[in-house]
Amino acid sequence: MEIIANLFILFLIILLGYGCRRYGLLPETGAQVIVQLILNITLPALILVSMNLPYSRQLAASMMQIAVVAVVFTLLVIVLARTTSRLLPLEEVQKRQWAFALIFGNVTFIGYPVAYLVLGQQGIFLSAIFDFIQSVLMFTYGIYLLSADRSVISSVKKLLWDPVILSLVLGIMLFVFRISLPGILQTALEKIGSTTSVLSMLAVGLLLQFRGFKEHSVRYTQMLLASLKLLILPVLFLVVGSRLNLTQETYAVAVIMIACPTAIMSTVLSEKYADSGQYAAGSVFLTHLLCLITLPLILKLGGII
User: Fold this and answer.
1) Which CATH entry fits the domain spanning 2-205+217-301: 3.30.160.270, 1.20.1530.20, 3.30.300.20, 1.10.10.10?
2) Residue spans per domain, the chain
3) Segments of the chain with pLDDT less than 70
4) CA-CA-CA-CA torsion for 18, 23, 28, 30, nearest 10 degrees?
């Protein structure tokens, strides 16, 4: 019950962020400032300190397992998304945004806080591995999908210098070579990283936009998207994942990551590479709204909370 209560506290912070946006309690640039603070400072600190764990074979096995799950699951969803999107009564650009929204989840702003709430530092450790796989695919295949263009080299170069990716690589090196951070640095990173959950939920609320629901065909396809992303795919993984020889930590983190709503970056990248982010914004809003119900439900069905 304590975990469920804490989940709803996080969701209340999302509503607070949305209220701040709706009633102008924060400047328009506030959301971007918070996002940059998370991506460049607090989340890298949280990842680094969470990966500074004593080496164990079980944790190493969990790391390899979550990487395999992330790759296999994402590739399967790519096939499903591309196949299904072709059948939808949407414009071509909307079909690409629909596929992107189904493939990539909001691991950064929803997955990390929930995994930390459920599993602590181990949750962040394994979430970072899953996030790495999704980030690489998002900024390569995802951009190609939205733009229908193969020129993604510049995005890959930026990805290599991303603070989150760099902290992940450094964290893996510390774990594999069994190097511990100095006590003072560890404490400082813990204090900085501990703000990530609250800031992430606030950022989600600030970034949500209620637009992109005008046409009946649009609403129908977005409800289909939400059903697949928040219920059908997570339930299918519960059935399959429970029969695999996964560690308890790998299973829990995989369920959390898979049950996440559409990535907020869907709107940002659609605006940049598909000339319009309206359909993506509607998908992001709807899946985040519904995940307030579906995410605790999936975690309860999976025996995680």
Assistant:
1) 1.20.1530.20
2) 2-205+217-301
3) 1-3, 148-159, 209-218, 275
4) -50
